[in-house]
Amino acid sequence: MFDNLSERLGGILDRLTGRGALTEKDVDAAMREVRRALLEADVALEVVRSFTERVREQAIGATVVKSVTPGQMVVKIVHDELVNTLGAEGQTIDVNSVPPVPIMMVGLQGSGKTTTTAKLARRLVQRDKRKVLMASLDVYRPAAMEQLAVLGRDLDIPTLPIVAGQQPPQIAKRALEAGKLGGYDIVLLDTAGRTTLDEEMMAEAAAIKTAANPHEVLLVADSLTGQDAVNLARSFDQRVGLTGIVLTRVDGDGRGGAALSMRAVTGKPIKLIGTGEKTDALEDFHPDRIAGRILGMGDVVSLVEKAAANIDAEKAARTAERMRKGQFDLNDMREQLSQMANMGGISGLMGMMPGISKMKNQIAAAGIDDRILKRQVAIIDSMTREERRHPDLLKASRKKRIAAGSGQSVEHVNKLLKMHRNMADVMKAMGSGKRGPLAGIAQA
Ligand code: GDP
């Protein structure tokens, strides 16, 4: 089974005692396990190949943050790439068009197409308050037409009356006509499936598409059929053109591989998932949940995220400690300046700090704006490590060099150094390091 990828990776990677960057050798060992695990989860081979290659590139050289193991780190990287591949932001079906909006359902017989049509109708009516008409285009199986009619009666959602002898494209047109006359918002077209992928089915679906010009063409695919579902998705997309995929029987699929494969192969989003036989068992697709299912280890992911957040906190605490001791050097200043830039620059910071508005005029008078932040960082970046640690070293010739290197004037370099002295003094005086660097800036 697949849910021990964490253990497998752990077995390989946690024997390594070294911390720091993951080496190529570690990563390759991990990738063999990832590959095996994905194949066991029924992910298509071509997808496994490109996926592991992408993960490998990201993992080599990645820093293992403190308090997580290299195995956990790789799991996190795999997880994030899974979410990316599955489509980072979930997408749902789009019904915003001129009513009646036609939505066409395609797929193999037995995939859950008719049930899904009813599920979708129910959601659109009950949750979204839309007026929905359902139509069965399966002229080969009267039982299928009857099945939709029964579901419609149960849900109190109308279905198009059956007229013997009509071809599917004609029925589609009649459904849209009825939709228009009846003031419906949406018309769901449940097309006929076959037991296997065949040209006749594709040709018919293409003809219906031409007749109805649907706003969405949704492939309903059984997640339990794995590889077949992937081939089906590819063929339907090439021949008919899909706007999205609905995966059914996700409730019985502990592996989640079909979702990853179909998305990767067709590039089409999985928009909905079926999670049971009842008509309320339809859910939006959440990439992170499926990624978690494929990995079977949501905990590791949040563990690594937390550990990474702690690193920032530790860094901030160290800087604060240095400030308290009056050791605020130009490296610390650079850190502060770039943090300010990250927080939306000076205007962003001012917006966040209620008391700061009093200083606004002072700051403006000093000519401080966000361009200055960038200039100051550029100046510090042109200094050597020694110079950043010991600003006293900066005499005229060094200042000239730094000015030239950063494309600024010596006067700007002097201003920066003065600002640094002010900030260092203020911070030392405060002794707590709690107040931000703006006080120093305002005095520069
Ligand atoms: P169609 O031939 O593609 O129209 O398939 P049906 O809609 O008739 O569904 C075939 C069977 O699959 C029925 O027994 C459904 O109840 C069942 N089914 C459909 N979707 C799901 C699902 O998401 N989960 C489960 N467990 N069963 C489903």
Automatic annotation (TrEMBL):
Q: Kindly give the SUPFAM superfamilies that the UniProt entry links to this protein.
A: P-loop containing nucleoside triphosphate hydrolases, Signal peptide-binding domain
Q: What is known of its domains?
A: Composed of three domains: the N-terminal N domain, which is responsible for interactions with the ribosome, the central G domain, which binds GTP, and the C-terminal M domain, which binds the RNA and the signal sequence of the RNC.
Q: Name one GO molecular function term.
A: GTP binding
The family note in this entry says: Belongs to the GTP-binding SRP family. SRP54 subfamily.
According to Swiss-Prot or TrEMBL, what is its membrane topology? Peripheral membrane protein
Q: SRP54-type proteins GTP-binding domain: from which residue to which, for each copy?
A: 269-282
Keyword presence, Nucleotide-binding:
yes
Which coarse location class applies to the principal site listed for this UniProt protein?
membrane
Tell me the GO BP annotations in alphabetical order. SRP-dependent cotranslational protein targeting to membrane
Q: What does this protein do?
A: Involved in targeting and insertion of nascent membrane proteins into the cytoplasmic membrane. Binds to the hydrophobic signal sequence of the ribosome-nascent chain (RNC) as it emerges from the ribosomes. The SRP-RNC complex is then targeted to the cytoplasmic membrane where it interacts with the SRP receptor FtsY. Interaction with FtsY leads to the transfer of the RNC complex to the Sec translocase for insertion into the membrane, the hydrolysis of GTP by both Ffh and FtsY, and the dissociation of the SRP-FtsY complex into the individual components.
NCBIfam families, alphabetically?
A: ffh
Subcellular location, record wording: Cell inner membrane; Cytoplasm
Q: Which HAMAP family match?
A: SRP54
Q: Which residues bind GTP?
A: 107-114, 190-194, 248-251
Quaternary structure (record): Part of the signal recognition particle protein translocation system, which is composed of SRP and FtsY. SRP is a ribonucleoprotein composed of Ffh and a 4.5S RNA molecule.
The UniProt entry, under Gene3D superfamilies, shows: P-loop containing nucleotide triphosphate hydrolases, Signal recognition particle SRP54, nucleotide-binding domain, Signal recognition particle, SRP54 subunit, M-domain
What's the protein called, per UniProt?
A: Signal recognition particle protein
User: Per the UniProt record, which EC number(s) apply here?
Assistant: 3.6.5.4
Reactions catalysed, semicolon-separated, are: GTP + H2O = GDP + phosphate + H(+)
Q: Which InterPro entries match?
A: AAA+_ATPase, P-loop_NTPase, Signal_recog_part_SRP54_M_sf, Signal_recog_particl_SRP54_hlx, Signal_recog_particle_SRP54_M, SRP, SRP54, SRP54_GTPase_dom
Q: What keywords would UniProt list here?
A: Cytoplasm, GTP-binding, Hydrolase, Nucleotide-binding, Ribonucleoprotein, RNA-binding, Signal recognition particle
A GO cellular component annotated for this chain's UniProt record is: plasma membrane
Q: What class of enzyme is it?
A: hydrolase
